[in-house]
Specification:
Length: 170
């Protein structure tokens, strides 16, 4: 049984039809604009182009520390699962693990803290099947911006640097 819109041709056929959308009713009225208002419109366009775009949102880097915990699991399985997670999620910096808990650190690019935290909170659940992660729950989350991370490191009280990169036992 083929599921498609009525009258639609199968993908990859040369019989695809293109349709167009008609212009609005006042399309032909463009010639009626006087030269003075056209100059004003062009000037406003140049002014807007010269100003920095306030609407364009810039993403930032956020340092994520995700802590998970649960019933004990064999260390070899935990290590293999975290290595697979690192393969699936290439920005993973380091993971430390024991048989009943783990800590994952990585950088996330996001518009703001809320977006970075939302992505981080989904990470473990979304990769649980593909990486065969233990059925642990998220028990901690820290999200800090890049400047705060570097400030903490410089002052000596931040999280230890995420080196060596990789998956390591506690």
């Amino acid at each position: 049984m083929r599921r498609a819109r009525p009258g639609a041709h199968p993908r990859g056929t040369a019989e695809r039809a293109l349709t167009s959308v008609e212009a609005g009713a006042d399309f032909d009225d463009i010639d009626d604009i006087d030269e003075e208002s056209a100059k004003d419109t062009r000037a406003r366009g140049r002014e807007a182009a010269a100003e920095p775009e306030a609407e364009m949102e810039v993403s930032k880097l956020w340092h994520i520390t995700l802590s998970v915990s649960g019933r004990e699991a064999p260390l070899k399985e935990v290590r293999r699962a975290l290595e697979q997670l690192a393969h699936d999620h290439p920005f993973l910096l380091t993971s430390r693990y024991a048989n009943d808990h783990a800590e994952i650190r990585y950088w996330e690019e996001a518009r703001d803290l809320h977006d970075a935290a939302a992505v981080a909170l989904r990470l473990w659940g979304e990769h649980r099947q593909s990486a065969q992660l233990p059925p642990w729950e998220i028990v901690g989350l820290e999200v800090i911006d890049r400047e705060t991370y570097h400030q903490r490191i410089a002052e000596g009280y931040g999280p230890p640097p995420a080196a060596p990169v990789g998956v390591h036992p506690y």
